[in-house]
Automatic annotation (TrEMBL):
Listed GO biological process terms: glycolytic process
Family: Belongs to the phosphoglycerate mutase family. BPG-dependent PGAM subfamily.
Isomerase among keywords: yes
Protein's name in the database: Phosphoglycerate mutase
NCBIfam families hit by this protein: pgm_1
CDD domains given in the database record: HP_PGM_like
Annotated pathway: Carbohydrate degradation; glycolysis; pyruvate from D-glyceraldehyde 3-phosphate: step 3/5
Signal peptide start and end residues: none
E.C. code: 5.4.2.11
GO MF annotations, alphabetized: phosphoglycerate mutase activity
SMART domains the UniProt entry points to: PGAM
Organism: Arxiozyma heterogenica
Active-site residues, Swiss-Prot/TrEMBL: 16, 128
Annotated residues for binding of substrate: 15-22, 72, 128-131, 139, 155-156
């Protein structure tokens, strides 16, 4: 592996560890699923890979973290930081796209720095793609309903988009929840409660998304928060814990992947990817997985989801 340059800004990017719904072969989307034990172990392994890489290349550990607003990314980040001997100070960035460039870099006290506290900024713009009416549904069931071609088009094509969800049903939280009285076995949290800060700022949140729409809502956060803070603070690296679709979106923007080629990119759970950019202009230098063999094997498993029986 080539030695990392201090003239580059390195993004350690990963899809969260395995969640309870990943394990069940279910479209998770904006549903808040917790990590499984396997997912927590993947996060611990991620921390080891990052530490080994930083030690080998004589660079500092990531100086700031970013997650989506979904609990599985926060839990992954917490396990990684704990394994690195650090603690996250979580803060929600709720500004609309046009105001992101006006958000100031959050401060951490010297005492917090000494105690290993780092800022972790959270944004819905890093959320998983909203899978509409597919959300909470088992992948083999959707595959059977739509057929191979349409299933893969909606899952992987840049403009493929599931039908919209009925949010009036999706967000009902039943007392002593035991199942699908509303037709939805798993549901996202009531967004007027979970995302009240965003809605108060005027954000219009989706009820279904294509990957192209994920790119559109993610790109302003990448450019005006992650990359801007990296430049202003002269950071060497940051840690981003996101989702399959939001990681694919980051790759598409930074690596200039074509609309047609992005359908062939699959993101495995819990294996860190390093995206190295020139500090001067954020031009791409290279990108690579810290465990490329495992990434290749597990990315293939992601592509085949729905075609194999649930574990």
């Amino acid at each position: 592996m080539m030695t990392a340059s201090s003239e580059t800004f390195k993004l350690f990017v990963l899809r969260h560890g395995q969640s309870e719904l990943n394990h069940e072969n279910i479209f998770c989307g904006w549903i808040d699923a917790h990590l499984t034990e396997k997912g927590k172990n993947q996060a611990k392994n991620t921390a080891k890979l990052i530490r080994d890489y930083c030690d080998t290349n004589n660079i500092k550990l990531p100086e700031i973290g970013y997650t989506s607003r979904l609990i599985r990314t926060q839990e992954t980040m917490e396990v990684i930081l704990q394994s690195l001997g650090k603690t996250g100070k979580f803060e929600i960035i709720s500004a609309v796209a046009d105001d992101l460039q006006n958000v100031s870099f959050p401060t951490i006290s010297s005492q917090e720095q000494e105690n290993g506290v780092i800022q972790v900024l959270q944004s819905w713009r890093l959320n998983e793609r909203h899978y509409g009416s597919w959300q909470g549904q088992r992948k083999p069931k959707i595959l059977e309903q739509y057929g191979d071609e349409q299933y893969m088009y909606i899952r992987r094509d840049y403009n493929g988009k599931p039908p919209k969800v009925d949010l009036n049903l999706e967000m009902i939280q039943e007392n002593n929840e035991k199942g699908a009285l509303t037709g939805y076995e798993f549901k996202e949290p009531n967004r007027h409660q979970k995302y009240h800060e965003e809605e108060a700022k005027g954000e219009v949140l989706p009820s279904s998304e294509s990957l192209s729409e994920v790119v559109k809502r993610m790109k302003p956060f990448l450019e005006n928060i992650i990359l801007r803070f990296g430049k202003e603070q002269d950071q060497d690296s940051c840690l981003i814990v996101a989702h399959g679709s939001s990681v694919r979106s980051i790759l598409k923007v930074l690596e200039n992947i074509s609309d047609s080629a992005i359908k062939d990119i699959d993101i495995p759970n819990g294996i860190p990817l390093v995206i190295e950019l020139n500090k001067s202009d954020f031009g791409l230098v290279r990108s690579f997985y810290l465990d490329p063999e495992s990434a290749k094997i597990n990315a293939a498993k992601v592509r085949n989801e729905g075609f194999e029986k649930s574990p």
